Amino acid sequence: MTPGGAYPGYTYHLPAARPFVSLADYDVAGVGSAAFQRLKGQVDTAVAVTAGLAAGATYDDLVNALNRSNYGYSALDSVVMYHLTLDPAYLQQALRMVRLYVAAENQRIAANQNPMIAGDSYLEVGHYLEQLALTYDYGYALLTPEERTAWAAFAEQTLTNVWNPSTARWGSRSAPWSGWSIDDPGNNYHFSFLKATQQWALASQNSAWFTFLQTRKFGPLVTYYQALPGGGSREGTGYGTAHKNLFENHRAWKASTGEDLSALTPHTRDSIDYWLHATVPTREYYAPIGDQARSSIPLMFDYQRHLMQEAMRLSFGTAQAARAAWWLNHVGVSDGGSGFVYGRMRYNYNFRYDLMAGGQAEQAPTALLHDAAGVGVIFARSDWTTTASWLAMVAGPYDQSHAHQEQGGFTFFKGGWLAVTNNIWSRSGINQGVDLHNVIRFIASGATVPQNVAVSSRTYSDTAGVVQIDADLSPAYSRRSSQVSSWRRSLTYRRALHQVQVRDTFTVAAGVQAVWQLQVPVAPVVQSDGTIVAGALRILPVTPAAPAIVTRAMTSVSSEFSAGYRIELTSPGATEFVVTLQAAP
Known about the structure:
The protein is α+β, with helices and mostly antiparallel strands and 585 residues long. The protein has 3 domains: 9-222, no CATH class; 227-365, no CATH class; 376-583, Distorted Sandwich (Beta-galactosidase, Chain A, domain 5), CATH 2.70.98.70. It contains 14 helices and 24 strands. An 8-stranded antiparallel β-sheet has the order 14-15-16-17-24-21-20-19, with no helix packed on it. It has a 5-stranded antiparallel β-sheet with strand order 5-6-7-9-10, covered by helices on one side. A 5-stranded antiparallel β-sheet has the order 12-11-18-23-22. Helix 3 (75-85) packs parallel to helix 6 (125-138) and helix 10 (243-257) packs parallel to helix 12. The protein is elongated and about 80 Å long. The two termini are 49 Å apart. The mean pLDDT is 97.
């Protein structure tokens, strides 16, 4: 397969006997590895907990008991351990867990309730059906004919409901739902829908689902990701981390069918470099772009490690995979305190992914700039040391619900955050408004003029240590062009000086006020010479030379914020702002 063009189709040569779903990718680390021992320890505990349940225990009883020692436990871990050891105790654990699950779901359906799998617009359908499908496949000989029929009926109805929302039903009851993202390959829900369909297609060998995927879903999927040069997600970095699930789908499908969907576009490989460059120089944070719902502060977590592991496995042997191996060896995940865990997952429900690590030689990155044009983000840094300065700017497509009104926004870092969205100090991490980003805020009749869905444009150059980014952000106000008819922003980043100069020119209607704003983590202090110092950042207003300056503590703005400050520069009648940001040496 080669990148480019439409989905070419594929002829499957599937195994003649079960198991049909391959788990060979989990063989990499080996049964003598520390990764194997970590997973085995938690699965052994799950086996003991499950065996200790009373005969009449329910699925909720089992989940509650498992959560006390193995939060978020998946029967997939038991199936993987059975695959690695052939110990029947592991398969029996998975069988009992899924039997109780199917019984619980059918009880809900019989009571005219939606089953758990339908919750939150079927968001967790992949999580639940993957466990059912793998257990069905590996434990098929131990299921009664009645159980096989019941499990298959539940899976088939679930998938029928997912892809046909207006005619969805449970039992004899109509149960339509919104159909959110069933046709949006860029949305994190879509990855769950695909996982459920792919895994059940494999486990059941139902040719109708193979045909459905090939004729209805793989084509749009390939087309969408061909349009994202540079990798990344238009949902940002928080929800964009869900590409771990997209890449896991690609890997699992390739292992079982030989069809490598990731090879049809450069997106997977490009995303390795995206995340390399989205990682700040000190290596504990990533660029906070879009909603940050899991944690408003973008600390590295198992999920970023999982994404990189999946992308590395799919890209094995390439230059990008070598850089991914470097990242996996040198970037830690938060241990929940002040330290970091290196070389492995922190949480038990992610242990199995460490079994895929190994075998890929590492190569440190050298490129100092990465252009993720498809998602509208550009990253630049002074070098690859932990004391480097680092810059990220957003300018491009804005079309996802988890993206923010931050077209033209930027983040500046050296040794710590210098200028960064105050969303990272919020309680929810999902504050999308213009007022929390490093942009110009336009105010009409006392209200902020919001940005709209659109595609901004930008060009850049990188010459002799100077990065120049020129963006036309006018499209972000195309629906309100009577108020804001144009806005252009240029960033000039001088690596050796660790300096960024921001130049804005704009045209607004009479009565519309432009507020140049900068979000900073520490209290800014206005100096006698008109400069502003915020920790290790010095802010020099150049044009206008003497703007009005207001600073606000975000805790005084709303109880939503635990920290952060906003600097506002204004000048009546101004059509241009030029401001220099200088990081301390």
